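Sequence design from tokenized structure. All designs in this work follow the same two-part layout: the structure record, then the generated sequence. An example of the structure record is given first.
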């Protein structure tokens, strides 16, 4: 009996222990769920706090533009976009710009409509109601001494609407910086004057196609507060408006058609504009609503262009550089005559930084700022900017450090100008322009891909350039030079086909390379089976040489313009 009782007690103890274990597991699971929930709430709160701090930081970093204007000596030289909060605080200063834009838009582009009627048409599928916003900018004055010009532009929020017709082409091309430099070089060669003009409200001159959807916009609150719009009305869009995806393409088609039909009377003669077959945007030269012709000084495509009495053109971006220095607080920083130490641009595969999204955006911003300079009139920045672009997604903080070093260099060279044309051109005025491509490559400086550079000149003045790592690893100096030579030949032909059309005859092409082996290979040297792949790589250039379309010459390293 005693044994049976002990067995019963043991079983009861075992069951009690099992119940305790089950309770412990339940409590543990409950606590783990609670901890997970707390962790999630904490993370969400931290994220919200971080976003709020970032927004606050962004607001704090925005300069007070009204104060900036008060402290400004002389005229404003670059464009600034002003946030809405600052516009509201100085609404009286902006009233004239607001009235000018609204008056222009209500003269055929926008038509007031009662909001009740607009909603009825929207319900019937006849109209799309969309929000709008204002873009407020401070621009350089059109009259010297006026200090600043305030510009307001009403924009439809096109990101809130879907495309109505997927088959409608949205492409609208514009002239490139290379084309502008080529046109300036040829204008100087021919001793032509240059000038610019602006088509005010260019989009508003075109008609809206009948087969596309109709839109109406709610006026932004700032216009209602200024007494320029009513809260019980919307504005029906009758013509292309800024912000719509289709507007640039519609304006481009309208512009092209108008230019084809243009007839200009000049000194008793009628001038007809002819569209270039090499570049459809070259009549004179176009970029959206800015038209470039050949007068004295102006700005175009972000460049400050000035023509000298000897018909040469000077290109610079001094105003933009000064503004960059101000925005980075480097107006009083130490300057340097060296763009960047070589050690900073070493091709080592450094570990990826542990960076924030804000730091990445700052790095991307720095690269974009330097690219804007390099692609227009500062080819001396090519190598460091190419390095920055290749590292920005991995090491944005390092990229910002390099950008600040470049700004110190730009502070020293802010007044540096690219000169296209000079008095020496006078003797070549009646001759064919000289078109030359310079090509060079640095063989595997970091142990991997080689670095290539090329520049195309017209009468010795640079009109196009590029420097970057090559697409794949090459196995010798000659192969790297041949690869870059083939790339340079393509760039040379891009410029040459347009120059041919301007001149009215074929312009001879020359390619200058500083590697004798590469020149011999291009010229058709015998070689061997070991170099057959190099012959294949240079086959296109050799074909042009054999057809007398291209002359390849050797140039010493000290005279190689493409040597960075």
């Amino acid at each position: 009996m005693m044994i049976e009782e002990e067995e019963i007690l043991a079983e009861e103890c075992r069951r009690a222990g099992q119940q305790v274990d089950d309770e412990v597991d339940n409590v543990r699971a409950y606590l783990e769920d609670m901890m997970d929930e707390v962790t999630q709430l904490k993370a969400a709160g931290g994220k919200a706090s971080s976003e709020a701090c970032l927004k606050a930081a962004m607001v704090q970093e925005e300069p007070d533009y009204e104060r900036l204007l008060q402290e400004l000596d002389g005229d404003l030289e670059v464009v600034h976009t002003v946030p809405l909060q600052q516009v509201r605080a100085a609404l009286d200063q902006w009233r004239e710009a607001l009235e000018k834009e609204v008056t222009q838009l209500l003269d055929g582009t926008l038509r007031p409509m009662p909001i009740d009627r607009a909603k009825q048409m929207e319900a019937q599928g006849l109209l799309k109601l969309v929000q709008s916003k204002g873009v407020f900018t401070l621009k350089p004055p059109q009259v010297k001494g006026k200090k600043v010009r305030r510009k307001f532009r009403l924009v439809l929020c096109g990101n809130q609407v879907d495309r109505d017709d997927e088959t409608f082409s949205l492409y609208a091309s514009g002239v490139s910086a290379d084309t502008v430099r080529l046109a300036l070089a040829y204008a100087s060669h021919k001793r032509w004057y240059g000038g610019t003009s602006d088509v005010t409200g260019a989009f508003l001159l075109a008609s809206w196609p009948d087969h596309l959807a109709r839109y109406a916009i709610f006026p932004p609150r700032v216009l209602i507060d200024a007494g320029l719009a009513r809260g019980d009305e919307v504005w029906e869009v009758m013509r292309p408006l800024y912000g719509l995806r289709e507007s640039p393409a519609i304006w481009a088609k309208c512009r092209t058609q108008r230019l084809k039909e243009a007839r200009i009377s000049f000194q008793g003669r009628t001038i007809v504009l002819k569209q270039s077959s090499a570049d459809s945007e070259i009549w004179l030269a176009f970029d959206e609503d800015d038209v470039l012709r050949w007068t004295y000084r102006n700005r175009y495509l972000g460049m400050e262009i000035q023509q000298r009495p000897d018909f040469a053109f000077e290109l610079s971006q001094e105003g933009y550089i000064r503004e960059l220095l101000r925005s980075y607080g480097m107006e009083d920083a130490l300057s340097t005559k060296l763009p960047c130490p070589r050690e900073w641009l070493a091709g080592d595969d450094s570990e990826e930084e542990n960076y924030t999204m804000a730091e990445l955006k700052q790095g991307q911003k720095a690269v974009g700022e330097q690219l804007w300079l390099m692609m227009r009139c500062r080819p001396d920045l090519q190598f460091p900017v190419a390095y920055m672009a290749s590292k920005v997604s991995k090491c944005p903080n390092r990229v910002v450090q390099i950008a600040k070093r470049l700004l110190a260099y730009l502070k020293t060279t802010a007044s540096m100008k690219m000169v296209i044309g000079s008095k020496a051109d006078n003797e070549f005025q009646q001759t064919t322009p000289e078109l030359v491509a310079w090509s060079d490559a640095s063989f595997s400086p970091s142990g991997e891909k080689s670095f290539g550079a090329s520049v195309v000149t017209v009468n010795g003045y640079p009109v196009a350039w590029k420097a970057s790592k090559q697409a794949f690893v090459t196995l010798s100096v000659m192969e790297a030079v041949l690869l870059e030579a083939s790339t340079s030949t393509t760039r040379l032909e891009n410029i040459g086909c347009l120059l041919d059309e301007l001149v009215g005859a074929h312009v001879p092409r020359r390619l200058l390379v500083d590697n004798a082996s590469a020149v011999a290979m291009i010229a058709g040297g015998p070689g061997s089976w070991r170099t057959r792949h190099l012959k294949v790589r240079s086959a296109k250039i050799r074909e042009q040489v054999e057809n007398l379309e291209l002359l390849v010459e050797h140039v010493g390293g000290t005279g190689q313009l493409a040597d960075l």
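The radius of gyration is 32 Å. We note this feature because it recurs in several other targets discussed in the main text.
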